Amino acid sequence: MIKKSRVTKETDIAVKLNLYGTGSAKINTGIGFFDHMLDAFARHSLIDLELTCKGDLHIDAHHSVEDSGIVLAQALNEAIYPIKGIERYGNATVVMDEASVSCDIDLSNRAYLVYDLPLNSGEINGFDLELVEEFFKSVAFNLPLNLHLTFNRGTNRHHIAEAAFKAFAVALRRAVTPNSRIGVPSTKGVL
C-alpha cells in the first residue's frame, strides 16, 4: 500500500493506493461529482484507492481537484516506476449511452497531455467542468505519462466526463498488466 500526502495553505490531501487491488474506493473531497469520478476510476482500474481532501472550497474546487491529481499521480509514480515486466501501453474506449471517449496512454516517464474533450464550460452540481482538464493535466505531468483523451461522440456532459475517467482507468489497468516476457519495455533500457 502506497501512502502519499500533501499539505499546502489551500489543501490537505492524503492518498492510500494499492495498484493491484480490487477497485475498492473510499473517496472524500467534499466535491460530490469529483468523488463520483474518482470512485469510477478506482473501480474500473482495479486500484484500491483511499483519497481525502480538505480544500478551500469556500473559494472554489480548483485547488482541491488539481492537488488531488498531483497526490494521486505521486502515489501512482511510486507504485509504477521504475517500469519492468509490465505492458507499458494501454488504451480503451468507453461508451456511456450516447457518449464515447477513448484514452491512450504510454507509461513513458515523460509528461504529455492531449486533451480533446468538449468540457471547457458549464458545470454539474456546482462542479466546474473545466476542472476535468486540470485533473488530467495534474496526473499527466506528475506521474508522469503520455495521456491522450479523445472525444468520439456524445452530448450529455456527465456521460462524457465519466466516460473519460473510466477510459483512463481501463487504459491504465491494461498498461500495468504484468508481462514477464517484456523486462524493461524500452529500447533505452530504463523508464
Indicate the proportion of strand residues: 25-35%
How are the strands of the biggest sheet laid out side by side? 1-2-4-3
Helix/strand class: alpha+beta
Sheet bearing the most strands, described?
4 strands, mixed
- Assign the CATH class: Alpha Beta
Q: If you compute it from the alpha carbons, what radius of gyration comes out, rounded to the nearest whole angstrom?
A: 16 Å
- Count of helical stretches: 4
The H-and-E topology, N to C, reads as EEEHEHEEEEEHEH
Percentage of residues assigned to helices: 25-40%
* CATH superfamily grouping: Imidazole glycerol phosphate dehydratase, domain 1
Named CATH topology: Ribosomal Protein S5, domain 2
Which CATH architecture would you pick? 2-Layer Sandwich
Count of β-strands: 10
- How far apart the termini lie comes to 22 Å
Global shape: globular
What is the residue-averaged pLDDT? 96
- Low-confidence spans: none
**Integer tally of domains:** 1
Question: What does this molecule look like?
Answer:
With 191 residues, the protein is α+β, with helices and mostly antiparallel strands. The protein has a single domain (2-175), classed as Imidazole glycerol phosphate dehydratase, domain 1 (Ribosomal Protein S5, domain 2). It is 34% helix and 31% strand. It contains 4 helices and 10 strands; from the N terminus they run βββαβαβββββαβα. It has helices at 32-45, 62-80, 130-142, 157-175; strands at 2-7, 11-18, 25-28, 48-55, 89-96, 99-106, 112-116, 123-124, 127-128, 146-153. A 4-stranded mixed β-sheet has the order 1-2-4-3, covered by helices on one side. Helix 1 (32-45) packs parallel to helix 4 (157-175) and helix 2 (62-80) runs parallel beside helix 3. The protein is globular and about 50 Å long.
